[in-house]
Amino acid sequence: MARGVNKVILIGRIGKDPEVRYTASGSAMANITLATNDVWTDKQSGEKQERTEWHRIVFFSRLAEIVGEYLRKGSQVYIEGRLQTRKWQDQSGADRWTTEIIAHEMQMLDARGDNVGYTPPAASPQSAPAPAAPAPATTSVAPPSGSTPPAQDFDDDIPF
Questions:
Q1: Residue 85 in contact with residue 102, Cβ under 8 Å?
Q2: Among 149, 118, 153, which Cα is nearest to 134's?
Q3: Do the Cβ atoms of 75 and 102 come closer than 8 Å?
Q4: In terms of DSSP bridges, do strands 28-41 and 48-60 run parallel, antiparallel, or are they unpaired?
Q5: Contact between residue 77 and residue 103 where contact means Cβ atoms under 8 Å apart
Q6: Who's near 73: CB < 8 A, 6+ residues apart?
Q7: pLDDT digits 0-9 by tens, 82-121
Q8: Interval 63-90 mean pLDDT
Q9: Residue 61: exposed, middle, or buried by beta-carbon count in 10 A (0-12, 13-18, 19+)?
Q10: If you average pLDDT over residues 66-90, what whole number do you get?
């Protein structure tokens, strides 16, 4: 007998800064909204059409802390997870249903240092003026064992 499969893979941009909360036991939980776009050409008019779909994503534990620390509105991310529908009651007591993606894997797709959507905090009157350009990052992350870092000077002559 075959088992069911509940797997979601998305690549999109974050709609607003992550909301991070902590449970009574101290475990982190983060929520984001992720926008994915579908682009096609209308067969009748020949015009380009676009539709944006919004997804609710929930992260738990250490992954939630990473999301809260590094992701911002506009960040492009790869998400892997599963669909889950939960029941809740609104203020009037009516039953409501929400379908979310419970993420178990996340990969940041923006280049390091892009800081898409990042706005530095406003300087206080006592603080010194901020530098015009951010300093380059001095830390690096080693690639997983058995893999090589991607080449930066790749050739665009793809045979297909």
A1: no
A2: 118
A3: no
A4: antiparallel
A5: no
A6: 14, 15, 16, 17, 117
A7: 999 999 899 999 999 999 999 999 999 987 655 554 444 4
A8: 93
A9: exposed
A10: 93
Tell me the chain's radius of gyration from C-alpha atoms.
20
Q: What local confidence, expressed as pLDDT, does residue 133 receive? A: 42
The Cα-based distances of 87 to 39, 47, 84, 100, 150 in angstroms read 33, 41, 10, 11, 44
Closest CA to 120 of 108, 134, 110: 134
Mean pLDDT, residues 135-152 taken together? 42
Phi, psi angles (nearest 5°) of residue 122 = -65, 140
Provide the token pair at 20. Answer: 């991070």
CA–CA separation, 126 and 118 (whole Å): 23
Percentage of the chain modeled with pLDDT above 70: 69
């809740």: which residue's tokens? Answer: 88
Q: Do residues 18 and 71 touch, judged by C-beta distance below 8 A?
A: yes
